[in-house]
């Protein structure tokens, strides 16, 4: 199985186990039915065999969640992996060491993929969050074994299809975050589908500057002004931008705050959240929505002083009465920290994969399953 157990670590401990919890049902079901389950995953971006990026602590945590022993192999290929796989009994789970300890994984090396595939008889890709990468452990193994989607993969795809391809109307997209350049593909693709596009966060500054409005000391992508103009022109009345902003001189807790009109941010001040008038406008558009897709916070949620707008927006989305899909690592972290977890129809584990799906891109890890 390919899972995505790429969780944030802090001093050797797991800082957030959401991705581990998400894979538990698939693993439990297979193990309970007598399968010998061999799990592949990556962790971080190792340049070499870095001990702090070992999956061993993840295996220990996974064992507690699945309530059964999880064996651990010191490598993902070669004698350590082969020996551990041979010793597995029916219903047992084995976690292989970080596949990215081998550069061949990211290179989708055929021989490396063949070695991984030799450990099993069937391949299950349950790692939607890694399926935008054409890596050996995601795509290559499917060339050598019968390949299937896991339960988490199916849940992610069904949620995205329900939101994007079979939406109840009106369909609203809320897009935040820092940069237009990283989400211009998402904005363009969503514009073809949505009834309204609500944009907040620092990326709104780029739209403001493209209109000729002053943005003070706020983050602006000067290289994306043309893109912002093109999106705004195509969107027409569909595009909804903030009308007031919570501003400070520095992005730090405890700073004096001022509310400024979106078209009148003063020199030396930066927009770090949306204001109450913007929350009211956004909430009004969200009321009664049939489908809402939310990607990206609308303020600097890591600092409580600038998190009120995102929390209020999250409340409005949760209470809209429609199907609500939340995606993106920053958004998921924000809803957890702001006490909004559990209030949405589906929270994607996908990160970059979700973003690419929202752009309309073909994901290699899914395309290979269709072929297989």
CATH superfamily caption of the largest domain: Phosphoglycerate kinase, N-terminal domain
Question: Which stretches are low in confidence, meaning pLDDT under 50 for 5 or more residues running?
Answer: none
Number of domains: 2
Give helix % range.
25-40%
**Number of DSSP helical runs:** 14
Oligomer state of the chains in this structure: single chain
Order of helices and strands: EEHEHEHEHHEEHEHEHHEEEEHEHEHEHH
Q: What is the terminal-to-terminal distance? A: 15 Å
Number of strands: 16
Notes on the structure:
The chain has 372 residues and is α/β, with parallel strands linked by helices. The protein has two domains: 9-149, Rossmann fold, CATH 3.40.50; 157-358, Rossmann fold (3-Layer(aba) Sandwich). Helices cover 36% and strands 16% of the residues. It is built from 14 helices and 16 strands. The chain has helices at 18-32, 56-66, 78-87, 103-106, 110-117, 151-164, 184-191, 203-210, 225-235, 276-286, 308-318, 329-337, 352-358, 364-371; strands at residues 9-10, 13-14, 37-39, 70-73, 93-96, 123-125, 147-149, 171-175, 196-199, 239-240, 244-248, 258-261, 270-274, 291-295, 323-327, 346-347. The strands form five sheets. A six-stranded parallel beta sheet has the order 10-9-8-14-15-16, sandwiched between helices. The protein has a three-stranded parallel beta sheet with strand order 3-5-4. Helix 7 (184-191) packs parallel to helix 9, helix 8 crosses helix 9 (225-235) and helix 10 packs parallel to helix 11. The mean pLDDT is 95.
């Amino acid at each position: 199985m390919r899972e995505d157990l790429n969780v944030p670590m802090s001093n050797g401990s797991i800082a957030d186990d959401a991705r581990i919890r998400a894979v538990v049902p698939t693993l439990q079901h297979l193990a309970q039915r007598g399968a010998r389950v061999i799990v592949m995953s990556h962790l971080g971006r190792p340049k070499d065999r870095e001990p702090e990026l070992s999956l061993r602590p993840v295996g220990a945590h996974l064992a507690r969640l699945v309530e059964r022993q999880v064996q651990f192999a010191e490598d993902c290929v070669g004698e350590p992996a082969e020996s551990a796989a041979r010793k597995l009994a029916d219903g047992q789970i084995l976690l292989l060491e970080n596949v990215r300890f081998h550069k061949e994984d990211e290179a989708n090396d055929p021989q490396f993929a063949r070695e991984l595939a030799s450990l099993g008889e069937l391949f299950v890709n349950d790692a939607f969050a890694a399926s935008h990468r054409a890596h050996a452990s995601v795509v290559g193994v499917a060339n050598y074994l019968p390949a299937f989607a896991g339960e988490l993969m199916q849940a992610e795809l069904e949620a995205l299809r329900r939101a994007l391809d079979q939406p109840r109307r009106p369909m609203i997209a809320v897009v935040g975050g820092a940069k237009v350049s990283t989400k211009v593909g998402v904005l363009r693709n969503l514009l073809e589908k949505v009834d309204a596009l609500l944009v907040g966060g620092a990326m709104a500054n780029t739209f403001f500057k493209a209109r000729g409005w002053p943005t003070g000391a706020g983050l602006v992508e000067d290289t994306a002004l043309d893109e912002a103009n093109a999106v705004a022109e195509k969107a027409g009345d569909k595009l909804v931008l903030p009308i007031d902003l919570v501003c400070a001189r520095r992005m730090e807790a405890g700073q004096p705050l001022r509310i400024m009109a979106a078209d009148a941010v003063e020199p030396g001040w930066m927009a770090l959240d949306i204001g109450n008038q913007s929350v009211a406008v956004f909430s009004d558009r969200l009321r009664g929505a049939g489908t809402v897709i939310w990607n990206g916070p609308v303020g600097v949620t890591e600092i409580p002083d600038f998190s009120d707008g995102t929390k209020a927006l999250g409340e409005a989305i949760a209470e809209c009465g429609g199907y609500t899909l939340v995606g993106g690592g920053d958004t998921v972290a924000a809803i957890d920290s702001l006490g909004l977890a559990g209030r949405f129809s589906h929270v994607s584990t996908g990160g970059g994969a979700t973003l690419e799906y929202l752009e309309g891109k073909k994901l290699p890890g899914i395309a290979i399953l269709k072929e297989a």
